[in-house]
Structures are given as structure tokens and as C-alpha cells.
Amino acid sequence: MKLNIYVISHPIIKILHHNTYENNIIKSAEIQNESKIMLFLIYEILRKLIDINNVYIHKLNYIQKLSIMNSQQKNYIITNIINNYNLLKEVYDTFPHTHISHYNANDNDNYIIDTIKNINDQTNIIIIEKFLVEDQIINLLKYIKNDIKIKEKQITIACITCTHQILEKISQYYKEINLYTTHIIYNN
């Protein structure tokens, strides 16, 4: 398997994951925990992807430093907004230059409803799911690569949990994709 897999094991994520999936908690607390976990995952992904340029403004008595994002860079989050709305609550406000696009896994002719514009070598696609479903993720990756013409190295998957089998399946077709998760389930 040559897929680039990052299992985020920050202590806060471990506590949130344990409290969400291994304790019987009320649904609203589970939704809040999942949202926080996804926020940590997106933060970790964008920390490596965002290209920051420093601009120095010379004033009379001092130099002011501004950090701005490369205007050519676009970050698209692709997810089923209907199923994953709770995961996206803070993402849009927290991360600049990040656009959220909806995809419908049940409609192969109209996979991504929102159009992805101005694609270049600095465009990043981040797929967000709570749990990866094999056929859906493979079909979505195929669509992004073949129809939208995004290179594998520009695609990142963020999921809270996934199985080893799904990772094996993805790695059979896609070698340069990065995948971030908090937990991998190993089934025998």
C-alpha cells in the first residue's frame, strides 16, 4: 500500500473519539464531538497545504509584516452537505479561501452540484466524510481525477474512521492521495 495515510493521534482527538464512539452519549454531544474532530483534521490538512506569502510594508519608524494567502491557491472541500452538515459548521468561517461543494453519491450524472472553478496546480481538493464507503469514495475519486482533471497529489481525504479494506482498495487505484483519519478499523 503506497497511499499516504496520516492517523492523527493528538490527545484531544483521542479523548473526543473515545467519548463519541465508545461511550453511550446523547446524539447532540456526538454531533458536537464529530464536528470538533473534523475541525482538527481540516486544521492539520490545511496547515500543510496553505501557501502563505509574507509582505513587508515599510512605514516611517517600523516595518509591518503581513501574512497573506497565495491568491492563486484555491481549496475546495467536497462532501455530501446533507449528510455531513454538522461537520462543516465552523470550517467555512475558520479557514480562508476554502469553498464547500456538495456531491451526491447517488447521482452519477450530476456528481458535484457546485462547480469547481479556476483549477490550477495550486488547487486542492479535500474530501470530507465521517466514514468512508468503498464504492462511493472510489467513484468520487474517479470523477474528480477524470472529469474535473485534478491530479492525485492535489486530492486529500479526511475521514473520522475508515476500515483497512477501504484503504487497500483506494491504494490499488490511487498512489499519491493523502488520507487523514483518527481511527482505522482492522477487520479479520
TrEMBL record:
Q: Which UniProt keywords apply?
A: Plastid
Spell out the Gene3D superfamilies in the cross-references: 3.40.50.2020
Q: Which domain of life is it from?
A: Eukaryota
This protein's name: Uracil phosphoribosyltransferase
